Amino acid sequence: MLNYIWLALIVIGVIVALGSDIGDISNDTFKNGKEVMVLLEQLQPSSLEPNKRYQVNISMPAENYRTAYGEKYSFPGTVSQKAELIMGSSKTEGALHIVVDERTPALWKEIFKAQRNPEYLLAKIRFEGNSSSALVSFDDVKFTRLNQVTNDGIIKYAKVAVELAIGLIGIMALWLGIMKIAEEAGLVAKLAALLKPVTTRLFPDVPAEHPAMGAMIMNISANMLGLANAATPFGLKAMEELNKLNKKLGTATDAMCTFLVINTSSVQLIPATVIALRAAAGSSNPTDILGPVIFATTINTTVGVIVVKLLAKLPVFRRQLE
Known about the structure:
- By secondary structure, the chain is of the alpha+beta class.
- The protein contains 12 helices and 6 strands.
- It has 2 domains: 31-140, no CATH class; 186-321, no CATH class.
- The radius of gyration is 32 Å and the shape is elongated.
- 20% of the residues are buried.
């Protein structure tokens, strides 16, 4: 079912992005192909040499901008931008690398975002005669939102999903193996017996010797020690075993809901991940969060368990399990 939901979201995203891009093309939002006249300050075309680079300032009166792009994009005064001029093989054309800052016109900023170049706005420049004026234009901008959805969204996160799944294989194999060894050695049984007074009250529908109980205990223990990657395979194993006790497949049982709340809120005795991040960021005392973290997560778990137990008593949820 979840796969169909993700597929529907992807299709909706593509359709919305495509519709928006078609609207941009029909409304000529990016003024594709339009040239705007600019002035190159203190630079004469006659002094330019082919295949050379020059640091220049370009100025653009508001009238020139309005003439090229229309009243909608007008602005007061004159815009001055720093740029690098790269001459082509002739002295009549080249490329401009325009520095984008707060003075850059709004339309140029939109084109800059569409070009997806973090360093500069790329433009073409064409000289006419020996005057210091030139005509500037940009490559056509089309289907920007569709590219964002497909490249930055679907493809990027599909890659992330694969990397995450592959990265978890080793962790899951390791810790499930450790859990199996602990089961064979009797460690899980002893730990379950030690926590039996608590677990039997939290999970009255789960037999104390059931494999689900051992998996839940290992998951909770790993979370308490801040071993999130180690807790994941135990949590998956616990849900798998709890589902074997489920009389109505497809509907979460009270034990499943309670375990999910405990797993999500998770009392943290040693927040290893946060401590590691603080240490990496240069904290002088990365462990000084232990007290607040233990207090906050204990409150989280307590409130979560109380709420899930109260909701489990409501008739509306009881009927779903019958």
